[in-house]
Design a protein that fits this description.
By secondary structure, this protein is of the alpha/beta class. The protein is 43% helix and 16% strand.
Length: 396
């Protein structure tokens, strides 16, 4: 969509304000702002000084039914005063979709912070944040875009069947970080005719570079991941156990936190890997990059991934990367060229791949590293990503 004035106005809906380390959002927001776009982020949390945009907080949702009712009695008259036409249009659109009066009032409250704004695009940063906001873009006279990432397509619909049925009929354009996610969303009901554009994560030009490819003793394996089942960390632990039983010296470091921390501690104990595995918890981005640089192999054993920015950063640094052959990881790593893929849910295949990797010659490991860095430099840079976003918003 071409702007009707000197700049394009974009509203980005997120669950929370992106932190500095969330480079996908921060690079997009700041890159477009530098090029004259006007960005408004609709999300909870404090505005970060590094974000070049406005931040608008949603109205709070309280657990108490009485408090919620009192808040609605205050907010709804306010939103009808500030945005009468948009509020009325939203009411009519929701009624046309068959919502009850109570559901419509909840929708008005949920979206009261968005309705007063005039935008060219309302962009849902995740599909899940579009639930209950399907008609807001049309109500304020903007086009509706939605982004697909791993969890909102791979996991959330498994728990909430049909959750995107209304959204699919309203969206004007789709962004995804991999072709895999587009195909998955079509399997969930997205029309084949819906326009889409693939814009992958991108990396900074200033990442440290690995230049030592002599394998250490013990071999240093590293994973950066949220500690949750979908990351397949138990598969990696079983692979480490198998390597240990065959006499291969290895130490496995996992950086991150999450709900499965206690479960992983139990697995480490049960597999007798206490001296072989370290859970560091969450580290700063700088410390994480330093650990990746010092590792021998970056390992991503996920059961599913939309793309995985950590794998991309590891390749950009020239690290030797090994990942499961699932989802967007098959688009992230070019098998045998920039890294290696192994069959998912298969600890034996993971262990065998690690052994093959460490048995490569120094020249072969150096070549893979160089090819990985070159591919990332050619296809996954932030400047290119911003140009792709311009095309996304300004093309029909």
């Amino acid at each position: 969509m071409k702007a009707t004035s000197d700049f394009v106005r974009i509203g980005l809906v997120l669950s929370s304000v992106p932190a500095y380390s969330e480079t996908f959002f921060t690079s997009k927001i700041n890159g477009l702002s530098k090029r004259g776009y006007r960005i408004v982020v609709f999300a909870r949390g404090n505005r970060k000084t590094d974000l070049k945009c406005s931040v608008v907080q949603p109205y709070p949702v309280y657990k108490s039914g009485l408090v919620r009712l009192l808040c609605m009695c205050v907010v709804l008259p306010l939103v009808f005063t500030r945005a009468p036409l948009a509020s009325l249009r939203l009411w009519r659109l929701e009624k046309r979709d068959g919502l009850s009066h109570t559901q419509i009032l909840k929708s008005l409250y949920l979206n009261a912070h968005i309705l007063p704004y005039t935008l060219h695009w309302l962009h849902l940063g995740f599909a899940a944040v579009g639930i209950g906001r399907e008609n807001v873009a049309k109500a304020i006279g903007s086009q509706l875009a939605v982004s697909f990432r791993g969890y909102d397509i791979n996991v959330y619909p498994l728990k909430h069947h049909g959750c995107y049925d209304r959204l699919w009929t309203k969206v004007d354009k789709v962004h995804a970080i991999s072709h895999y996610l587009v195909n998955q969303s079509r399997a969930l009901g997205l029309a084949d005719s819906t326009p889409f554009q693939i814009i992958t994560p991108a990396v900074s030009n200033y990442l440290p570079v690995k230049n030592d490819f002599e394998i250490k003793k013990p071999i240093q394996l590293l994973t950066v991941a949220r500690l949750t089942w979908v990351k397949g960390l138990s598969i990696a632990l079983q692979a480490v156990s198998q390597l240990k039983s065959t006499g291969v010296e290895v130490h496995y470091t996992i950086i991150g936190d999450g709900p499965d921390h206690e479960y992983l501690l139990h697995e480490i104990y049960a597999l007798e890997l206490t001296k072989w595995v370290t859970l560091t918890g969450k580290l700063s981005h700088a410390d994480t990059l330093n650990r990746i640089q010092q590792s021998d192999i970056y390992l991503q054993p996920s059961l599913n991934e939309g793309f995985c920015n950590a794998v991309l950063e590891a390749q950009a640094m020239g690290c030797l990367c090994l990942a499961s052959r699932v989802g967007g990881l098959t688009e992230n790593i070019e098998h045998g060229v920039t890294g290696w893929l192994f069959e998912p849910r298969n600890s034996g295949a993971c262990a065998e791949a690690i052994v093959r990797l460490i048995n490569l010659s120094l020249e072969e490991r150096t070549t893979i590293s160089s090819q990985a860095r070159q591919r990332v430099a050619a296809h996954f840079q932030m400047d290119k990503q911003v140009l792709q976003w311009k095309l996304f918003y300004e093309s029909n």
